[in-house]
Design goal:
Elements: E1 13-17, H1 23-35, E2 39-41, H2 50-60, E3 65-72, E4 75-82, E5 88-93
Parallel strand pairs: 1-2, 1-3
Antiparallel strand pairs: 3-4, 4-5
């Protein structure tokens, strides 16, 4: 197979967490980063600036997709989005202690 016809994955994913995550929840995020190819991690983000800042960070890192992990009242939720202008979805992660 020639190098010019070989398919390469050009999808990059930015993984961001919110402040206030528990150690178990952080470990879950790190495990997901290790299995997602071409993922880039970013430091914690303030909860009130999430949408505008995540779009900007995704653009700055040259990523196509974003995963944002948010914790509120002890519940962990995951936002998945496609940049620019793609669909987004929010998931509630339950029993994150089972992943440990």
């Amino acid at each position: 197979m020639e190098d010019s016809t070989k398919w390469t994955n050009k999808q990059k994913t930015l993984v961001v967490g919110s402040k206030g995550m528990l150690r178990i929840q952080k470990q879950l995020v790190l495990d997901l980063c290790s299995i997602i190819p071409q993922s880039k991690r970013e430091t914690k983000v303030e909860k009130d600036q999430q949408i505008s800042l995540i779009k900007e960070l995704t653009m700055l890192h040259g990523c196509n997709n974003s995963l944002y992990f948010e914790t509120r009242k002890g519940n962990l939720s995951m936002w998945i989005g496609k940049y620019p202008g793609g669909p987004s979805a929010k998931f509630l992660i339950r029993d994150s202690k089972l992943f440990m």
